[in-house]
Amino acid sequence: MRRPVLEKQRPGTSAVLLYHRIGLPKLSSLVAGQYVAPVLFRLQLDYLTARSWGATSLAHVVERSRFGKRPPRDEFAVTFDDAYLSVYQHACPALADRGMTATIFVVADRIGGINEWDSAAGDRRELLMTAGQIREMSEAGFEIGSHTLTHAHLTDLSEESLRRELVDSRHRLEDLIGKDVPAFSYPYGEYDDRVLAAVILAGYKYAVSTKLGVAGRTGVYEIPRVNVRWNAIGPFLMRKIRRARRATGLPR
Predict the structure, then answer these.
(1) Which of 11, 6, 8, 7 is nearest to 250 (CA)?
(2) Largest CA distance in the chain
């Protein structure tokens, strides 16, 4: 009697999602697409989990990537650049209610202030998390990463200024939360070989970019992400993840 041929199960995908601001889109903003409504954010989390995507941490994704492994099932990690107050108010409670975590990349010299890098260019002023809120999120299990001191264009900096943005921001955050800060996010997604080498030298263990893709096919200092925008309702979010798979060279 012939045994049935079992269909080989495909490996899963690790998608790292990139968010900035949580709130109703503000048409007066120069980056209105960065706003994701709180209700849409919650629906996105539920949409993915309803389709058997598992929520994980960025650190867990990195650990797999170091060995070139793909997960046994599809998984997603949530990241936030800039540490906006709206993330603390709306996104973190939604994640905590679902037993999920995230990585929050903080502009260390602007804690408790505003998004000066955007407002200087004419964009809306938005409040950032305070030191107490960042510490609270760290104690609640959220990872705190560095997004430099001032959200600088790193490729334009001198060696000394580059070192200060990378090293001093990590030290300041470590002093704040009392933990190691291994994660880094490149402001504006800008980096070159010199910046990448400086990030490694500064003591970071991994870094995320803004390049479209999924994890597992790049080095741990160039982890691609899926940039989630204001209109990423469930099917549109999945379509963007499929595009990220293709950009990375995966068949699905």
Answers:
(1) 11
(2) 75
- The dihedral over CA atoms of 166, 17, 231, 26, expressed in degrees to the nearest 10, equals -30
Burial class (CB in 10 A: 0-12, 13-18, 19+), 211: middle
Sorted by where each begins, the domain ranges of the chain are 14-246
pLDDT in tens for each of the 252 residues of the chain? Answer: 455 544 456 789 999 999 999 998 777 788 888 999 999 999 999 999 999 999 999 999 999 888 777 888 999 999 999 999 999 999 999 999 999 999 999 999 999 999 999 988 888 899 999 999 999 999 999 999 999 999 999 999 999 999 999 999 999 999 999 999 999 999 999 999 999 999 999 999 999 999 999 998 889 999 999 999 988 998 999 999 999 999 988 765
Say how many Å lie between the first and final Cα of the chain, rounded.
Answer: 35
CATH domain 14-246 topology? TIM Barrel (3.20.20)
Strand partners, 16: 77
